[in-house]
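Technical appendix A lists one of the benchmark inputs used to test multi-chain prediction within the project. The record comprises two sequence entries:
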Amino acid sequence: MPILDHLWIILALPLAGAAINGLLGKRWPQSRVNAVAVGSVTLSFLAVLELVREFSQLTADQIPFVGTYFTWIIAGPFHVDFALAVDQLTVVMLLTVSFVGMLIHIYSTGYMAHEGGYYRFFSYLNLFMFFMLTLVMATNLIVMFVGWEGVGLCSYLLIGFWFLKQSATDAGKKAFITTRIGDFGFTVGVLLVFATFQSIDFGTIFKSLAANPISEVTLTTISILLFTGAVGKSAQLPLYVWLPDAMEGPTPVSALIHAATMVTAGVYMVARMNPLFSRAPIAMFVVAVVGAVTAFYSATIGLVQTDIKKVLAYSTVSQLGYMFLACGVGSYAAGIFHLMTHAFFKGILFLAAGSVIHAMGGNQDMMKMGGLAKKIPVTYWTMLIATLAIAGIPGFAGFFSKDKILEAAASGPHANLLLWLLGVAGAGLTSFYMFRLVFLTFFGTPRFDEHQVHVHESPKNMTIPLIILAFFSIFGGWLAARHFVGGPDYFERFLSPVFSAYAPQAEQAVGNPAAESAMAESPALALFHALTGWPVIVAVLGLVLAWWFYIKSPDAPKRLAKSAHGLYLLLLNKYYVDEIYAALIVRPLLWISTRVLWHGVDEGLIDGVVNGSAHVARASGGRLRELQSGNTRSYASWVLVGVVGFTVLLLVLFVTGVH
Amino acid sequence: MNVIPISYYLVLSAVLFGLGVIAFVFKRNVITIFMSIELMLNAVNLAFIAFARAHNQLDGLVFVFFVIVVAAAEAAVGLALVIMLAQNRQPLSVERMNHLKL
């Protein structure tokens, strides 16, 4: 079992790539930087494939397969090993991350070809792969935290990649600081886990959780704290504000980090900690509500954005909301399923958007595009497939995963009609704004000067990843297809050991094939129900509405914007959340930092103490200096004073009898 | 035989020492100050000898020899310095002798 016994190889390859390119790549030609960057990630992906082959031969009691490499920290009972583990959930994440990561690396070789700092970009990108793979393979919370913070660092570095641009560096800082708020909660959660279970190892935690009952208050607190971390990392309400700004980074970065992988880390973490969450119903409810509200809320903002990447950014926030909704209603498998399909179709959407921007010579404003379908056909077709997938049109990957989420919200163990309603409404909005994007970009007449912009299809190394991802955007969802004709869901069945092994007794029936088939209706009827369900109806409705608005009568949006001017402005300005945060948090914080901490504490107190002690020393020194006048007689007088004083002291001691 | 009590010697010694101190503090001329130092040293010598006699021990006498030797050496060096100073600056007042001050 070459790879299972050496899991570290999967991590070491991208790390080595990052180190080599980062240290030596500056003077290298692009082709050599490419070879190192793409080569290391491709080898890592091949290693993952080999890992999957070996993993399939393991027996059930060998899973999760743990590889411990060295002891990292020992402090009393606090013991941390650098250990990696593989189970079904890790396999899904590894495949998704390394596969999409590899394709985006290849795409980047085309997209970044004309940019400065080429080696730096690939060094960061490889480093990101290292941390992301660490995150998903970690078998304890501390190693996971290393990956968790590492991907945050790479996100910061890559958002601010064009560091000469003020807005890019600001966006990088915003992302880093906003996620830090969530990470604070996550850190406290990890400490609380250790305080409760005396361990930070997943297996140990889950076993002791299953063995001894622990107060629900503690579990709820831990779960909510951990979820805070997920809220920051996965850009949910109220900490989502950094993700739209993160679009300042290069487009492949948006695709890899801010759509396909890093932002899904929060979902992965919640799914990984499922035994904890499942035992804390209140925390579950919080997760579901945050997810559903975010899904709907950010979809409404996406309706009116005109920057092609901003639309996709809000769409990502919205789709992440669906994943949390799935976890919150207890269907972790559906959440992970959507995570995977989302990685495929959102990967395309961003990469194709990058291709469009590339073709338009840097323009990102959809109002200045139009009629591109004929000129860049590969980009058009792949983007159309991804749009059909994200909108949830039957047959495409997004349909299967989103339908499963909404099904769980409607009839799962923690079903909630209101959340389902929010999810369905969000699905309709998703369909509308995505088709709006496609229609504005590819249809109609060009709204730019065709003599100035030379529209051209992107090179092969950019289009081939698009085509591969498009294939998976269609067929990636078919793993669950038989579920819709009343059969088993292969994806859910594959993941079920992870989600049912330590599940509370009451819920162990869920995900059990026997229980599923019991409620099965006839295959044809099930298929009919799935195809005519509300999610599909609203998706088609959104499509038709977008078609009406942006192709049939292009004046309609303007008229609607006029008649509902207030609402339009509210959405266009993203509910003024950035302004509210600036007024409520940023400015008071700035005021306190400047007036109190800087001018008060730093200049007043700290400088005061330092300068004050220097002043005292100088003043007293100045006085004492006068003793050394150089006048012999004054020295003599002092000696005399000393002698007299000492003699008097001796006499007093002698008289009073103290020796 | 009537022995003079030790306290007489000590009082004399103290008076001589006091005179030496007063001269040292109030006089300005370097040579006078030297003389007052000699006066103080000899006042101490007197006390040493008085104690040596009273206790019938030689330690005090040995000390006196050392003091005399050191005083001689000090006078030799000191007077040499005074001569050099006198050649360079006329008034031998200690108040002018502050050139080693920073």
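Residues 577-625 of chain A form the longest helix (49 residues). Chain A has 27 helices and two strands. Comparable benchmark entries are summarised in Table A2.
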